[in-house]
Write a structure and sequence with these properties.
Elements (H helix, E strand, L loop, with lengths): L1 H21 L7 E4 L23 H7 L4 E5 L2 E5 L7 E3 L3 E5 L6 E5 L11 E5 L4 E5 L2 E3 L7 E5 L2 E5 L2 E3 L13 E5 L5 E4 L2 E3 L4 E6 L6 E4 L2 E6 L6 E6 L3 E5 L2 E5 L11 E6 L7 E5 L3 E3 L3 E5 L8 E5 L2 E3 L4 E5 L2 E7 L2 E3 L3 E6 L1 E7 L2 E3 L5 E4 L3 E4 L2 E3 L4 E5 L8 E3 L2 E3 L4 E5 L5 E2 L11 E2 L4 E3 L4 E2 L51 E4 L10 E8 L2 E2 L9 H4 L3 E10 L5 E2 L6 E6 L3 E6 L7 E3 L3 E5 L2 E8 L3 E6 L2
Parallel strand pairs: 1-2, 2-5, 3-6, 4-7, 5-8, 6-9, 7-10, 8-11, 9-12, 10-13, 11-14, 12-15, 13-16, 14-17, 15-18, 16-19, 17-20, 18-21, 19-22, 20-23, 21-24, 22-25, 23-26, 24-27, 25-28, 26-29, 27-30, 28-31, 29-32, 30-33, 31-34, 32-35, 33-36, 34-37, 35-38, 36-39, 37-40, 41-44, 42-43
Antiparallel strand pairs: 45-50, 46-47, 46-48, 48-49, 48-55, 50-54, 51-52, 51-55, 53-54
Length: about 625
Amino acid sequence: MRKIFVRWLIVMLFVVLMSTVFIPMTHAATLSVSPGGIIGAADACPIPADSQTYNSVDKAIECAAAGDTITINPGTYTVGGVAAPLITIDKNLIIVGAGAANNVILQPSTNTGNSGDARAWFLVNAGVNLTVTDLTFDGNGLSIWQAFRHRGSGEFNRVAFNDIQFQPSGPSYAGTAIAAFGNGNVNVFNSTFTNIGRIGVQYFGAGVTNGTFRDNTYTGKGDGDHLDYGVEVGAGANATIEGNVISGNRGVASVDGSTSAAILVTTFFGPGTSATIAAGNNLNNNTSGVAIGFDMSDTSTVNINNNTITNNTANGIGASSAGTVTIASNTITSNGDGIDLANVANATIQRNLIDQNGSGVELANTNATINNNNIFDSNTIGVDVSDATSSGTVINNNQFCNNTQFGVQNQAATIVDATNNWWGAVDGPAPVGSGDAISAGVTFNPFNAISPGASPCALQTNTIGGSSSTGGETVVDESGPALCSFFDGSVNEIVRADVPDLTVTDGSVFCRVIAENGNFVTSQAEIGHIAVIQRGVIQAVDVFGLRMNGDPAPDFNGFVNICLRGTGNFYYLSALQSPRVPQRLSSSQMTIAGQTFTCARIPDAGTVVLTEN
């Protein structure tokens, strides 16, 4: 019995060893394609697949196993069959050009169809991951509806798409380089798109959860009877679009008047679409930089930030309708209109530089929060709120200047809150002040009366320290003497005054120094409030006007800007109050003749005090 058991054990060990030795090991192969390759389209696949070179890209794709790499050497290759160019990719592959993309050119064998999968030159099946690098796909004058009809996932890097068109001037108005619509994400990096019939990359359907289009260049066909969209996101897809240059998309379809855009985002074909358009896109010389929605029922969510959007003929950013649109930290310059939003449920416009557009912002039936923007040099209106606009628009903490007709125009029935804005002048918006005009139906007070610092809307000539004999503002030499006069005709360099036109009866502002350089010239009681004195007085000055009869005038009929030499907290005690109550004013610093002054606006005669804390 023992011998039988030992023999059985030896046999089993031999079987195990033999099975281990003879199981073939799989590995990812690299197949090589070159014009002088041996294996052609009609040949059988060599075994192993990488044992011979190929002269046919089609054959290399057929023979490759899942996970293989196909390296295509420099040359021009015709890809596809005689009847149709369709190549199906049904396994994970890496296809690489050996060298720069323009040295490895793939061209279709014939035209594609115009419906279903027959539209494709390359069809990538669901579940397949495909990586394509350093290749050119050139339609070569043939009719190609989609270069890649992509149901899988993967990446395109340093790929050039040229002349992918299918009746680009109608009736089809088609031609797409990559149509990604499967249950996976297709990322496109560092690639170029030239002479495309309609769309560079189309992200379509809820299966695309985070497609990325980054650092690419799309060059449109310019004016004509055709359409161009560098990227289209729709039917519930989600995409991130970063760092691209998209230009020249200006065509108009004569059949229905459809227009082009650098980027199109829509829920027309299905809900749930969202896009992040960020991180340095340059969208220029298109009809629209970003177009949102095909109709008035779109619900897309779009985040547009840190882009440069310039010289687009209709608008920089336009929406016919949308769910939520956030526009932040962009430069939006020299467009037909800067931002044109209609039927947007929730819009946020903040921290943008919006200048030299037709109108800076156009709103219709849109709830918008507009804050911390620079809106200037508009040919017509800074912000135009139309008569159909929702009641929720708020316009706060912006800078408006040099907008031709209005800073803010409200054509709606409800009042628009436009408080705490700078209007380009210390006396506020016209017709009350001399800044950008506002229309009826706009609440502007309180407003920012202090010129911003480094800003396009900062006062271009500093009037602190000078006035005309009639009270009008004049350009002054900041190195000259201060013009806040004393009764004896002298001046004191610690105080400077800016006198807006008609704010004082005869245009003069007079001063009486109470404390200078921390020392009291007159009694401390002249300040009128011990709590201010206890903070450590640096400078203190009485400021008042003068009536025609020579009596002091406590009422300026407006305001005066006062600067005291030094840095600290700025307090004001009105001469019209009894007892006088100190108010800490918002202040700013200014360098005049090499010295730092702290400046604030006072509404009437009173005492101004600069304190240490």
